[in-house]
Amino acid sequence: MNSELIHRNQTTSTQPTPTPRGKPSNLVKNSTAPFRYMLQKQRLVFVLVGIAIAALFFNAFPISSPSQEPIHGLIPDPVLASESTHGTRRVLYEENPEASRRSNVAGKVPLGVKGKSLRILVTGGAGFVGSHLVDRLIGRGDSVIVVDNFFTGRKENLVHHFGDPRFELIRHDVVEPILLEVDQIYHLACPASPVHYKFNPVKTIKTNVVGTLNMLGLAKRVGARFLLTSTSEVYGDPLQHPQVETYWGNVNPIGVRSCYDEGKRTAETLTMDYHRGLGIEVRIARIFNTYGPRMCIDDGRVVSNFVAQALRKEPLTVYGEFTMLELAEVVQETIDPNAKIEFRPNTEDDPHKRKPDISKAKQLLGWEPTVSLRKGLPLMVSDFRQRIFGEQKMGGAAAQ
Ligand SMILES: O=c1ccn([C@@H]2O[C@H](COP(=O)(O)OP(=O)(O)O[C@H]3OC[C@@H](O)[C@H](O)[C@H]3O)[C@@H](O)[C@H]2O)c(=O)[nH]1
């Protein structure tokens, strides 16, 4: 090759090979030689093309590092939610959403397509918790498919997304299989309040077992990451207080609540077996008693009951050993100081006390409640007020 570079190298050689244009001594002296060399024969163009090809290659096949996902590496540890908030949850992996996206898409989004949004399935997305999750996912730029049978979910919770091309809603019951091409699955579909899940217990356990199997099967087939929303009810009537994730619980397997308690425990088992046996990437979140706007008005759970009762001028029903008396008093303060309190016998198998130990969630996810009861309750009250009295208002009647 007739290259000046070769000549320069030859200056250090003990046995220089003569070349037709060999002038090594001049080249060493001339500090502009490398630039002249680059500019000759369109070499600069080739260098630039080379850089472009290398950049494309490394973009298309990024080197994944486990340190990108310190939290995910520790999952699947169950994560607890607190009983006193529905507020914004801070999750560390969201601080680096791009890293999170690239490292878990499992083939659904081509890895080289930078910034492409995820397609996410939310089962039970028309419900109270599900619809808030959908807001969050759409808000961060993802596409969402909601699957809901509307047993407890309501279209009204999602109506603000209708017409958005990134949003799709399918009326479907998860006990029947469905094939959807998605990157992630948030599996929330199941009635969560005791009055609803006890209404048809066989359907409840079927939803938890067959529905979860179907969604895990889908996750396996399309290579999606899977999250199961479990419940504090997996601890039954706990003998350990507060409850840590490693506690195995104290559940009555043949009681009136077991369709839900044991159903969710089985759903957790299936989730972990799909993870261990088939390598599905999974999460389990054990959600405690939660409240907020969009809850079913006649949901039957304690906060929604007290709020609806106080607004309707009915007595607040405190069951059992008066553990909810303090909550009833806060509801009185917030809505109606003259609201009456009525004591009723406890329902069967009602847990005596439950409280999550959230130290692990704090440490690993940076999550902790951010909305106090006295701040959160008014948000729910104004939502309930509007839904209970809204129609009367529109008809011109005095609502409150
Ligand atoms: O009107 C009421 C309703 C409920 N309660 C009491 O309030 C406490 C909480 O009961 P809820 O019916 O609100 O619900 P639970 O806490 O038993 O479970 C519910 O919330 C936690 C989730 O994990 C579960 O999925 C869900 O079933 C119980 O001690 C119950 O006896 C009342 O005192 N008055």
Automatic annotation (TrEMBL):
**What's the cofactor?**
NAD(+)
Give this protein's Gene Ontology molecular function annotations: NAD+ binding; UDP-glucuronate decarboxylase activity
GO CC annotations, alphabetized: Golgi cisterna membrane; Golgi membrane
Q: In which pathway does it act?
A: Nucleotide-sugar biosynthesis; UDP-alpha-D-xylose biosynthesis; UDP-alpha-D-xylose from UDP-alpha-D-glucuronate: step 1/1
Q: What does the record say about its membrane topology?
A: Single-pass type II membrane protein
Q: What is its EC number?
A: 4.1.1.35
The UniProt keyword set, sorted, is: Decarboxylase, Glycoprotein, Golgi apparatus, Lyase, Membrane, NAD, Signal-anchor, Transmembrane, Transmembrane helix
Q: Which GO terms describe its biological process?
A: D-xylose metabolic process; UDP-D-xylose biosynthetic process
Outline the segment boundaries, as ranges, of region: Disordered: 1-28
Residue ranges of the TM segments = 44-61
Domain NAD(P)-binding residues, every copy: 121-321
Give the UniProt subcellular location, in the record's own words: Golgi apparatus membrane; Golgi apparatus, Golgi stack membrane
Family assignment from sequence similarity: Belongs to the NAD(P)-dependent epimerase/dehydratase family. UDP-glucuronic acid decarboxylase subfamily.
Could you identify this protein by its name?
A: UDP-glucuronic acid decarboxylase 1
